[in-house]
Amino acid sequence: MASAAKNMNDMTSDSQPDAVTVRFAGDSGDGMQLTGGQFTLSTALSGNDLATFPDFPAEIRAPQGTLFGVSAFQINFGSRKINTAGDEPDVLVAMNPAALKVNVAALRPGGLIIADSGEFGDRNLAKAKYDSNPLEDGSLGKWQLMAFDISALTLEAVKPFGLSNKEALRCKNMWTLGLSLWMFDRDRQPIVDWLKAKFAKKPDIADANIAALNAGHAYGETAELSGPMQKVSIPAAPSEPGVYRTVTGAESISLGLVAGAQLASLPMFFGGYPITPASAILHHLARYKEYGVTTFQAEDEIAAICAALGASYAGSLGVTSSSGPGIALKGEAMGLAIMTELPLVIVNSQRGGPSTGLPTKTEQSDLYQAVYGRNGDAPMPVIAACSPGDAFDCAIEAVRIATHYMTPVMLLTDGYIANAAEPWKVPDMSSYAPFPIEHMTKAQEGGFLPYGRDEKLSRPWVKPGTPELMHRIGGIEKAVDTGHIEYAPENHQAMTDIRRDKVLGVADSIPDQAVDMGEVSGKLAVIGWGSTYGPISQAVRRSRDAGLDVSHIHIRHIWPMPNNLGDLLRSYDRVIVPEMNTGQLKTILRDQFLVDARPVNKVSGQPFKIAELEAAIAENIA
Fold first, then answer.
1. Which is nearest to 552 in space by CA: 605, 510, 604, 513?
2. Residue 108's CB: how many other CB atoms inside 10 A?
3. CA–CA separation, 610 and 620 (whole Å)
4. 9-66 pLDDT, tens per residue?
5. Is residue 331 within 8 Å of 346, Cβ to Cβ?
6. Tens of pLDDT along 354-397?
7. Residue whose C-alpha is closest to residue 388's, from 246, 556, 526
């Protein structure tokens, strides 16, 4: 980032950075996600482009002050286009020793630490496995440090409201937010309005939090702080005219599913079961009943997908959602959807695995599961969103393919996309072509054939109870055309081939693969999918600025792949594939196109850094 070369004490009114990365970190009960979310709101209202990365602990409530209970929220914002949540924070706000211990190594050299010295007592230091107080022993020498007793300052600010000590300390995050709003020249009023609305039934709590917010702001404004704490003003980023809102991936997918159902003229049924990080989709869709959306929280993952498939059988658009472990449980029902050839959208918000794995960390390790992970030859189209905003269009595309080809479709996101936020230009829906679905109501000439097919190899969609269109459906192999149970070897061969060819035919209705940045041939292509888009695009841009012959290709349609992709990949001397797994897309590319795709892998539960990919580009282009 351009700001990485600047120290915070250089960020004066005469020399402002074009982007800054801030990380808020504290105990899981310190409200860091809320603080980050409200700072994001104020930043968006200031017109900056931004990207965020919430980093949750896996435990529901880890012991207070421990290393594995640290919660963090990172935001990268600036006056230019922002594609990632930033490599190294410029500012780290650490609310306790554990937050400092877990996050300080990520802070860029010369970056600023703001620490609550009131939390650095012997007990908390021991929980964080510090032998001495890092605020006093010189171990933080390569960073700039500002430590003051935020806890005591918060208690003083909210004293007039008669709160208990525990309730008062819950306002610390608002005091910290107030200081941050001062530091980056943000308006407090939207936060004040939000607090009044949130605590409308508890005005004393609202007033106390507002007092803490104002006190933090006043501390920065009036304390005449010496050293690195300076006010930084970052101009608004250029943007196209239009209506914008901040959107997370989960919100964007939910809106896209609703929009897709409307474009298809179908009611939508969503069957889900709570699982991190996919649960938010159920929460968002429950708000859209007026658009013909029915939501159902099932007792388990299998019931959720079976209910959604039942809704599709009845003529609605069935949708279900989960993460890797839940997708594994849904496997047989996905096979049933493929056998019965009913439309179904399955959203997989990937997380670290296997099994329970890393529930709150991001990964891309479900690609094999999406493309291959069912018993028998059971192909289905797979689409991958590359950002929170992109998830809207991907959801619409998933609905289109599912309904036009009578097939389940898997839409891949991951923990980063699901939880991250970015500004999103609200689209003009009149620019989207409707694709209305009509259920069959009359038999074809010669009689009804439930597995008779159109030019796309799609069978008819018939609502149960339609006169003269009675038919069998289920998980046992069907006879070609009639749908009767059939075990004959030649029939199974034929039906397996038809289901395969139908899915492969989806490639004829998707665009050719484009080059996101660079030339259509050259020395090196960096091939990505999903949430690696941001760091790859920045790394390729920087490398091209340095004179390297490198291009960026990002794949949305994972299966089937665009018809021109093989020829495009073969036009480069070398291909590398950055993935947050051990090389799954790389293997598929080698299998399909016989190209020497080389892996660049990361499975730490954290997104790629731009610098990591710049290094990989330099190494592979030599």
1. 513
2. 23
3. 16
4. 444 344 578 999 999 999 988 899 999 999 999 999 999 999 999 998 887 777 888 9
5. no
6. 999 999 999 999 999 999 999 999 999 999 999 999 999 999 99
7. 246
